[in-house]
Design a protein that fits this description.
The protein contains 29 helices and 39 strands. With 973 residues, the chain is an alpha+beta fold. Bound molecules: beta-D-glucopyranose (BGC).
Length: 973
């Protein structure tokens, strides 16, 4: 279930969304999740990583390759495209485990016949230049079929055309389409080979099209294959055309199944090192796995010359540019699961250092000012007018390019993170140190020394919150610049020690300064905004508090055009305290060790209501910090929103008149961060891997593989316990610390276990108990559903539907009030007398249902736990308000396990009064302190405590706060 994403109807308005949602790819190219018959109008595209082109004075963007999977089926003269003929049935799906895209479409044809068309395809993870497809047709009546398939050179472009000199030809059964890019004159070649075992084939070489015609027999299945290869002038010294020809022939020779097998093997291995398993929450599991899938299909595993664009390989949106998104939102996933790819991402920044130097120089600064929107050369693709005003159509001056200086600090942060995680300090010698110094030099030249306050400040910048441009002392930016300076000094020490020659060379290169002495001096007098001692709030930037205080709802009510840009000179948010995305809170997450829980909580509570989450980068940060402060359930909705963004397609599609749709890799990485670094609570600083889980209510456990400092570990994380297992073949050991306890070294093949202190104390208490007193409903059995079924039956009798969603309204509500709600839902009115009869009836139905109870209804782990207690000689009692308790225990076939049953017939005062538990303890002949109560309700927990007994709560920790230990069910014991 959670490995497949699918839908079972064709909806034209979802073509664009599904093009993103059903993406396949391999880091070399991305193939949009469009259907085989789609062309450029439906945004079909095979987007190439790292190949950019500029047409005229339009925006420079990635190049889409001609589409070699293009196929249209014609039956008896009619094109069976979902665009032309409404299908009788249609399924589109993505199998995540193997990264295979499938569609199955049934069309009605003449004489009541049906034609079923299936197409399956994948972008090979084994042969990065190869795509392959398997197709079938099956008709229930005889018909005439014509298949048109080949290479569609009419590619989708946003700011094209990028390819010229298109040529198509046939060479030795292979169709070839070649062209060159406009700006750099780089050749692009696509080859296609098809394997039809039937029909008459005609070739239109000029259009790179095959036409295969045949008379299909009713009941027969016709199957064929297609292979394609894509090469460009960036790949190697060889002619792309020759490479493509050779690759497609090799693919066809190997055959579809062999290619698929090799592809699947690599995927299996990728999942093995990256899949995160969540127990207890299928929706979260599916969404997280899908997010990881999205990251895996765009990861540059083979090239250090490309990084991951903000819209992945889902097209040309955002100019295919690489933003800070990579370092801050995606890198952590790769650091923990695939350090080699993480290295490629960082090497990309090293290779684009010259572009960053050019940008710094252009603005009159020293060092390296990285591109806000980076492409192949590192020059900034971001324009000065990024958004058009929707009202006037005029370009608006935006300052993303000029003022988001934090980008250079983000790059440094990424490189340092990489080094901490892997211990691979060679990256410093290979250019990493130079990047770090150049960025520090840039900030040295950018900073302003305030002689009055005698400190360095960073003025005139835009922080992560793009709605407030050109502000002074943005807390996030300053904190990161501070970190850059620190890293520059640490890197120097490391380099001098381990790579003295490289160090000497850099020291001489920068001997004119600013260099280490200046960085040190700047660091000593550098200003980073701190929490206000009274409110604990960190002001996002100087004079932020002077802005208009307005609710988000009020701000939104001022919107005139739904696409209007809220930032910029005259944007609605500009003059208010409303922020686009996490800013201070992101800083608190990056430097979590430096701030107290109180500071994090105060800022979360202050900034969250003021955050529009107008960027998909925002919600995950609130999830992370919520988990960090021990409130995972605050964070959960933000996690889900992030993890589902590419499944629902519910993200901003336009800013001004600019289309910004596509996939959201930063959110995909953010979902992973929220789950693993947030809820599972993993934090590695290069020395100790700390594990402080804060799992959302529905999550029982999280299990995942991680790679730290070159060694592999498997982590099993639940609320009260963490288990770390080191791979046998690890070459090193890593220190782990669970629940804030003492670190322990995890050697190759070893297993460590950490238990939460509260849990430890509770386990001791459980080991010492002499008597166990159980509540019935919610602890031993769940009869809530029978109440629902009884209400539903009553509603059905009255002629209306009563759903589970309706039933939510009845939780914790008395019988008579429940009936009123039910009647309100059904729109019916009755006299009091009639209502009493109905309530009686409902109860009769309920009793009837529970009379059918059997052992299978026992909650998980109950029987086993009761048996174990008896084995240990622990006395067992029931303490329940239910008047049917004995009857129910009997039905469940566990009555014999109880030494005493105190139920609603034996006591007169309801919980939270302790009567029932005191009576049960007395019946067992035990002192209260020797008994433990097991309870699922707040009132029950209170009753147990009032009886002077320790209590194990079963349910949610937030609700059962008074309990000594809270577990999800007896199966946890
Ligand atoms: C966000 C930036 C982000 C960019 C690309 C913008 O909307 O504000 O922080 O880098 O999108 O994802």
């Amino acid at each position: 279930m959670s490995w497949t994403v699918s839908e079972h109807s064709f909806e034209p308005e979802r073509i664009t969304t599904n093009g993103n949602k059903y993406m396949t790819g391999n880091g070399y190219m991305g193939c949009r999740g469009t259907l085989e018959e789609f062309g450029k109008e439906q945004l079909a595209a095979v987007t190439l990583a790292g190949l950019y082109d500029k047409a005229g004075d339009k925006w420079r963007e990635p190049v889409n390759a001609p589409n070699a999977l293009f196929t249209v089926i014609n039956c008896d003269g009619q094109d069976l495209s979902v665009l032309a003929a409404e299908p009788a049935a249609h399924t589109q799906s993505l199998e995540l485990r193997q990264a295979v895209h499938r569609r199955e479409t049934v069309f009605g044809i003449r004489d009541g016949g049906q034609l079923t068309y299936t197409a399956e395809r994948f972008v090979s993870m084994d042969q990065l230049h190869v795509l392959a497809g398997r197709f079938t047709l099956h008709s229930t009546v005889d018909c005439r079929i014509v298949i048109r398939t080949g290479i569609d050179s009419e590619v989708w472009d946003i700011n094209g055309p990028h390819l010229s000199g298109q040529q198509s030809r046939m060479r030795e059964e292979v169709l070839l389409a070649t062209a060159v890019t406009g700006e750099l004159q780089l050749p692009v070649a696509v080859a296609e080979q098809a394997d039809f075992g039937f029909g008459r084939q005609e070739i239109d070489a000029e259009r790179a099209l095959r036409t295969v015609s045949f008379d299909a027999k009713a009941g027969e299945t016709y199957e064929w294959y297609k292979y394609a290869a894509v090469f460009t002038g960036l790949d190697s010294g060889e002619e792309p055309e020759e490479c493509a020809l050779r690759a497609v022939r090799a693919a066809a020779d190997a055959g579809y199944s062999e290619l698929l097998e090799a592809h699947s093997r690599i995927w299996e291995e990728r999942w093995l090192r990256s899949d995160v398993r969540i127990e207890g929450d299928d929706k979260a599991q599916s969404a997280l796995r899908y997010s990881i899938y999205q990251l895996l299909i765009i990861a540059p595993t083979e090239s250090e010359k490309v990084s991951i664009p903000a819209r992945g390989l889902s097209g040309q949106v955002y100019k295919g540019a690489v933003f800070w998104d990579t370092e801050m939102f995606m890198l952590p996933f790769f650091l923990h699961s695939d350090p080699a790819t993480a290295r490629n991402l960082m090497m990309y920044r090293i290779h684009t250092l010259d572009g960053a130097r050019r940008k710094a120089a252009e603005y009159g600064y020293l060092g390296a000012f990285y591109a806000w929107e980076s492409q192949d050369s590192g020059d900034d693709a971001c324009t000065l007018f990024n958004v058009n005003d929707v009202f006037t159509g005029r370009p608006m001056r935006t300052y993303f390019r000029d003022k988001q200086v934090h980008i250079s600090a983000d790059v440094v942060h990424g490189i340092w993170q990489y080094l901490q995680f892997t211990g691979d300090d060679a990256i410093l010698a290979e250019g990493g140190a130079e990047v770090i110094y150049e960025c520090a030099r840039f900030f040295y030249s950018y900073a302003y020394y305030n002689p009055v306050k005698q400190r360095y400040e960073i003025l005139d910048v835009t922080g992560p919150d793009e709605y407030h441009e050109r502000v002074n002392n943005n807390a996030f930016t300053n904190a990161l610049v501070h970190e850059t300076l620190e890293i520059a000094l640490k890197a120097a020490a490391l380099l001098e020690d381990k790579y003295p020659a490289v160090y000497a060379e850099l020291a001489s290169q920068f001997s004119g300064g600013p260099f280490l002495a200046e960085f040190k001096e700047m660091l000593e007098h550098f200003y980073v905004p701190q929490p206000d001692p009274d409110t604990l709030i960190i002001e996002q930037f100087d004079r932020y508090y002077q802005l208009e205080e307005v609710t988000l709802a009020e701000l939104k009510s001022r919107i005139i055009n739904k696409h209007e840009y809220l930032g910029g000179g005259s944007g609605l948010a500009t003059t208010t305290r409303i922020l686009k995305q996490a800013d201070v809170v992101l800083m608190l997450n990056l430097f979590k060790g430096k701030f107290s829980k109180e500071v994090k909580q105060a800022n979360w509570e202050f900034y969250e209501p003021r955050t529009e989450h107008g960027s998909s980068l925002s919600p995950c940060i609130y999830a992370l910090v919520a988990a960090d402060i021990g409130s995972p359930d605050w964070g959960y909705p933000y996690f889900m929103r992030t993890a589902t963004v590419d499944l629902t397609g519910e993200a901003k599609q336009y800013v001004g008149d600019l289309y910004i749709g596509g996939t959201h890799p930063a959110a995909n990485g953010g979902a992973w961060m929220a789950a693993v670094l947030g809820f599972a609570g993993l934090h590695f600083d290069g020395g100790i891997a700390a594990l402080n889980p804060a799992l959302p209510e529905s999550w029982q456990s999280v299990e995942l593989p991680v790679r730290l400092r070159g060694s592999s570990f498997r982590l099993q994380i639940s609320r009260g316990r963490v288990t770390v297992t080191a791979a046998e073949d690890n070459s090193g050991a890593v220190l782990f610390a669970g629940f804030g306890g003492e670190p322990e070294l995890c050697r190759p093949g070893a297993q460590l276990q950490f238990t939460a202190p509260a849990r430890e104390a509770a386990e001791q208490m459980l080991n010492n108990m002499k008597g166990a007193i159980f509540d019935l409903d919610g602890v031993i059995v769940d009869t809530a559903k029978y109440h629902y079924l009884a209400w539903r039956a009553l509603a059905a009798e009255l002629g209306f539907e009563f759903t589970e969603a309706h039933n939510e309204r009845l939780k914790g509500v008395s019988r008579m009030r429940s009936l009123d709600i039910l009647l309100e839902i059904g729109g019916r009115e009755f006299s009091d007398e009639e209502k009493h009869a109905m309530a009686e009836k409902k109860n009769r139905l309920y009793v009837e249902y529970i009379s059918r109870l059997d052992q299978s209804e026992l909650l998980p782990g109950v029987k086993d736990y009761l048996h174990r207690l008896r084995g240990r000689g622990v006395a067992i009692a029931l303490g329940s308000a239910s008047k049917n308790a004995e009857f129910i225990l009997d039905k469940l076939n566990i009555a014999g396990l109880f030494d005493a049953v105190i139920d609603g017939n034996k006591v007169s005062r309801a919980k939270p009064d302790p009567e029932v538990f005191l009576a049960a303890g007395a019946a067992l002949g035990l002192q209260p302190q020797d008994c433990i109560v097991f309870e699922d309700a707040e009132a029950g927990v209170a009753a147990g405590k009032a009886a002077g007994m320790p209590v194990v709560g079963i349910g949610k920790p937030e609700i059962l706060q008074e309990a000594d230990l809270v577990i999800a069910g007896l199966h946890e014991l």
